[in-house]
Model the fold of this input.
Amino acid sequence: MSETKLRLGFTCSQRYREEHTQELEKFVLNDFLWLVQTFEVLITEGTKNTLLSILKLKDPNKAKIIKSLSVGLPPRKEGLVALTFELIEGRMGAVFQLTSFLELRDDLSQELLRRQSEVHNIVYASTLKSVGQIVKNWKEGSPLPKLNLINNQLRLDKLHAHPAGGKK
Done:
């Protein structure tokens, strides 16, 4: 029986890409491919295209790995909503949302993903520095996150016990 890989959501805003180009290139070449091999990575379409363009320039052989990602997530806000939905449904163990504070403040879909990560107590990072530290710890043997299926089931049980009309 094969073990199911844990899902990790990954997105990088256009503004963050523009402001952190060199750091993003370094991350893609050093850590992102490890993440893809370790997790089932859900990635928004725009972010996937950016990572592909970096790898095509820097390491074309590794670009094939990124192309093979089964994404299925649309670009921009729709992709963020899809990531948030996967998180809320308990199907994601970590979210790396590379974005700026201003974008979080000004874009509800970005803030919603961040907030739901906090509410559901999953691993979350919004900067390459924090992502890099988390990946370093995982590579050195820190436990990978586990899906909190028990809490998710308790949440579902509570929803079914108290229908929308209130307690009976």
